[in-house]
Amino acid sequence: MKRPIIGILTWREGKRFAEPTYFRRLLKAGQELGCTVFLFSPNDVLGGGKQVRGYVPGKSGGWQARIFDRPDAVFDRYRYTPTQAFKNYVAFRRTSNFLYANNRLANKWRVHEVLHRDSRMHRWLPETHLYNRQSLVNMLGKHPLLYVKPLNGTGGRNILSIEKRGDELRLLGRNKQRAKVSTVVRDKAAAQRWVDRWTRQEKYIVQQGLQLQLVPSRAVDMRLLIQKNGQGEWSITGHGIRVGQERSATSNLHG
């Protein structure tokens, strides 16, 4: 019986990958299940898609390149970066005819729009708007806690929280390098100017924050992983709660 061939589509630069430890575990799990698994990027597809230059862990460390037959299925693990390489990936994903196990990660505004179409979801959705100066002012007048988030991106990069504290506004965030950023401003106009500088290079949403206070002074993130099982029925396959550091706007693992 032929071993299933699974390709993991991801970013690489030379033999450097974005999530090397995770990928090593993923490849090991695939091999234990009897599959041939390798990493590849859009530029590694050869011969019109009939073969792929794939990467697997080398015996002495690092990554070793080998030529593999066309994968039976592809797991897309490519993550957003504001680079030409990501634009090339989007074009590749749009035109390639591999059998993908998952869709591209949708941006935050697109996810909100899809959920908002179903009236049953309205009670569960925080108020969300595309960011501009007027939407920020309007939201500051309605909610004591806001989040300003880039449409694209993962890992908590460039996410900013704005919280009313008496007559002041406290801004907490993480920049592109995930370093903590913190400041206090006196009024909405100062907050506008600060957030304008924060958002000037990308598109953002401004979103109502939820003051759950599950753990005082810390951001808490609860998630369910829901997938279809072998019978095509939705089932919960994972769940967890993450607690962020003190004075952090996010609770993601990268932070």
Blueprint of the fold:
Elements: E1 5-9, E2 12-13, E3 16-17, H1 20-32, E4 36-40, E5 45-46, E6 51-57, E7 63-69, E8 73-76, H2 84-95, H3 108-116, E9 128-130, H4 133-140, E10 145-150, E11 160-165, E12 168-174, E13 180-185, H5 188-198, E14 204-208, E15 218-228, E16 234-246
Parallel strand pairs: 1-4, 1-8
Antiparallel strand pairs: 2-3, 5-6, 6-7, 9-14, 10-11, 10-14, 11-12, 12-13, 15-16
Summarize this structure as a short list of keywords or feature phrases:
single chain, elongated, 6-stranded antiparallel β-sheet, 5 helices, 255 residues, 36% strand, 2 domains, Rossmann fold
Task: Please report the total strand number as a whole number.
Answer: 16
Amount of helix: 10-25%
Output mean pLDDT: 87
Number of structural units classed as domains: 2
Largest sheet: 6 strands, antiparallel
Unreliable runs, pLDDT <50, ≥5 residues? none
Query: What's the shape?
Result: elongated
